[in-house]
Specification:
Helices cover 59% and strands 15% of the residues. The chain has 4 helices and 4 strands. The longest helix is centred in the middle third of the chain and has 26 residues. InterPro entries: Claudin, Claudin11, Claudin_CS, PMP22/EMP/MP20/Claudin.
Length: 134
């Protein structure tokens, strides 16, 4: 019973972590900028934000984003971060599928326990790589 609960808790935590990586990759609020103090900017509605995909400005109720489409102009750290976040997002999908198949409540034919154990190890390694890359 304890092993089943640990498997389910591990799967839920890894799935939530993978969803968090995907959401963090898509968001444009990586860096919030302001010419004044943050409280003054919130009162004046002059906040700017930068992400991996767009630079956004919020001023007097308008929210305008300029997409970052020219890859050669971007700094190297933004390009590297884009590549690592995309790699983490793509790496998480097979890891989640592998971890779904090794849950204790799922049986796939008459497979031996060793095959399920190897899939569990591979899924765990992929999740650890996802954490290191993302």
């Amino acid at each position: 019973m304890v092993a089943t609960c640990l498997h389910l808790a591990g799967f839920v935590c890894s799935f939530i972590g993978w969803i968090g990586v995907v959401v963090a990759t898509a968001t444009n609020d990586w860096v919030v900028t302001c010419g004044y103090t943050i409280t003054t900017c919130r009162k004046m509605d002059e906040l700017g934000s930068k992400g991996l995909w767009a630079d956004c400005v919020m001023a007097t109720g308008l929210y305008h984003c300029k997409p970052l489409v020219d890859i050669l102009i971007l700094p190297g750290y933004v390009q590297a971060c884009r590549a690592l976040m995309i790699a983490a997002s793509v790496l998480g999908l097979p890891a989640i599928f592998l971890l779904i198949t090794v849950l204790p409540c799922i049986r796939m034919g008459h497979e031996p326990g060793a095959a399920k154990y190897r899939r569990s190890q591979l899924g765990g390694i992929l999740i650890i790589l996802l954490g290191k890359v993302g």
